[in-house]
Amino acid sequence: xxxxxxxxxxxxxxxxxxxxxxxxxxxxxxxxxxxxxxxxxxxxxxxxxxxxxxxxxxxxxxxxxxxxxxxxxxxxxxxxxxxxxxxxxxxxxxxxxxxxxxxxxxxxxxxxxxxxxxxxxxxxxxxxxxxxxxxxxxxxxxxxxxxxxxxxxxxxxxxxxxxxxxxxxxxxxxxxxxxxxxxxxxxxxxxxxxxxxxxxxxxxxxxxxxxxxxxxxxxxxxxxxxxxxxxxxxxxxxxxxxxxxxxxxxxxxxxxxxxxxxxxxxxxxxxxxxxxxxxxxxxxxxxxxxxxxxxxxxxxxxxxxxxxxxxxxxxxxxxxxxxxxxxxxxxxxxxxxxxxxxxxxxxxxxxxxxxxxxxxxxxxxxxxxxxxxxxxxxxxxxxxxxxxxxxxxxxxxxx
Length: 399
Fold this sequence. Notes:
Helices cover 75% and strands 4% of the residues. α11 (264-293) packs antiparallel against α12 (305-340). The chain is mostly helical.
């Protein structure tokens, strides 16, 4: 009976006595502080974005900006482009201090970042260039669809956005990741063979095992199965390789391969398609209403862009807890797959290492799990591994 009660506690996300010894209390205190600050920053950033949108819409700033752009540029393409560039640049400048604090000061304060100020600036410029290019192209496409297909624009835009997501899933490992990390083939032939065999048993053909230099930016660790088709590859961080045993690396990869076995990528793409359709349909209703409410010239008026943005932001906030719920279920199933692969102890030990290495709060409050966690907590994952080992040890003893 005692074993059963212990197992129930583990499955409920409580840290067992052995894990309490493994997790440094001071480190967990720091993890809770760090997580709390990040959560507050999320609400501050979201609130600031909403305030800016309210000013643009209710304060008439958007109409003023559109009028200025029309005085400088000629034609809808140039006006939309100038409006977007100026508004985007203004938002970046306003949010830069908060971004610097959240992505540079805070990780350094808690010992997570190894990145120099110069490297941070370079990464930030790369991110701004990419997001700016994609964002500008997206706005121009949206404005053109609004002008050309005023009835079906939302359906076409949802379909094109979904196709873009699929393309990025395939191209990101090849085109985008090397922009931020040095990517090299793993030079440990034995580990390469082990991981490749594991992928083959899961029916996932991979185009190699690679290492990225995460240590140039952080002490945190990660591993992933990324890409689609001919671009699918195993990617390990050098921080994981330096801190984990081959069994632990294999346990993490087994979890990642479970997503392939369970068709989680396809499920995610279907879910994203539904979310995009819902968001675009809601935006279509909002724009139809906003043309009259805010005195816009029509659906293709670039001054209405903040209304589109606030609808998509609202949809994202509403969907986030529900999306996290379903994602946690998929991640839990992937954890079980890794345990069935015979790596229960390695899985347990690597989860405890990741809790320390990534400064993860092992057992956050329920509201935090609901709003922010796309994975089970460390305590839940370790508890599952311990319960799995307990059940199978009991079975072995009975046998």
